Amino acid sequence: MATVQEDGAARLIDGAAIARGVRARLADEVAALRAEHGVTPGLSVVLVGDDPASAVYVRNKEKQSVEAGMRGETIRLPATTTQEELLAVVDRLNADDRVHGILVQMPLPKQIDPNAVLRRIRPEKDVDGFHPVNVGKLLIGESDGFAPCTPAGVMVLLEEAGVPLRGAEVVVIGRSNIVGKPMAALMVQAGVDATVTVCHSRTRDLAAHTRRADVLIAAIGRGRFVTADMIKPGAVVIDVGMNRIDDPTTKSGTRLVGDVDFDGAREVAAAITPVPGGVGPMTIAMLLANTVRAARQLAGVR
Ligand code: GUN
After folding, report:
1. How far, in Å, are 27, 37, 67 from residue 34 at the CA level?
2. pLDDT tens track for 51-76
């Protein structure tokens, strides 16, 4: 099992192990697609500029797609790239039959409008799920679109951890287009059937909402914001946060923490995702899953 029971404390939902399982299944599917249909799923990632965090993400995306037997390429462009130049790269990838998934890494340099770029990607290749066509398909429950990878990964984590969602009270903190809003859309989908509350920076009496949650999903972007007193005893806590804080006791002088105060929360919750090793590894696994499905759909393989 991908969970670990510890004495008296919350069960850990091991995202790293669950993501490994997803990638192993994808590798089998990729091998079969190639053998039976001559299709090798291809993911192209575009990185503009030299943001160090983005460089790490992008390297992992290429590495893991290649390990799953896919075609993975990274197109690196200088920070001075114009919007027209980037759109020309997107157009070329849109037209390339070997490319099934396109991801333009965010954030982009100031001179480029991210919305113009996201709208230029063919929705059929938009494995990030950020194009308005895919946002709309998610909302109306059309299953041939692509859901954003982080909330899609949370759904897989909850399923693998055996967390029941039908009729459950799910509270999402955060309303971003990348996590909070699509998370809510996935949870209310027929067949999932959760009851969802979306909280944000203007929510009155936040703790009154979070304390009702059977499943609490934190995607605020503020380190250790969710404390034990905000959690209902026995709840499942999903921590989407990735915040770097100073920590002189580590070699680098910094440390990654989630949006949840982990040590306090694990005394109250029934199950919790750690940071790192929880939601994070699932995001790339879902990107690969979306790319394999894009390849199937574009090649007309059922
Ligand atoms: N930057 C940080 N996370 C993401 C992501 O999921 N997709 C893209 N395109 N950029 C990101």
Report:
1. 11, 6, 15
2. 999 999 999 999 999 999 999 999 99
| Alpha carbons 113 and 181: distance in angstroms, whole number | 21
Domain count, the chain: 2
Is 126 noted as a catalytic residue in this protein? Answer: no
At 1, is the pLDDT very low, low, confident or very high (cuts 50, 70, 90)?
Answer: very low
C-alpha 165 – ligand 1 centre gap (Å) = 27
- Catalytic residue flag (residue 128): yes
CB 227 within 8 A of CB 206: no
In terms of residue numbers, what domain contains 83?
38-123
Both 60 and 171 in one domain: the answer is: no
Question: Given a cut of 80, is residue 12 above it in pLDDT?
Answer: yes
* Pocket of ligand 1, beta carbon within 6 A: 103-106, 128, 149, 283
Q: What is d(CA 184, CA 206) in angstroms, rounded to the nearest whole number?
A: 17
Write the pLDDT tens digit of every residue in 121-164. 999 999 999 999 999 999 999 999 999 999 999 999 999 999 99
First to last CA, the chain: 30
User: Among 105, 115, 120, 284, which is best to mutate for testing ligand 1, by the most ligand atoms less than 8 A from CB?
Assistant: 105
Which residues face 256 on adjacent strands?
244
Burial class (CB in 10 A: 0-12, 13-18, 19+), 233: exposed
Residue 290 covered by a domain? no
Shared-domain flag, residues 153 and 246: yes
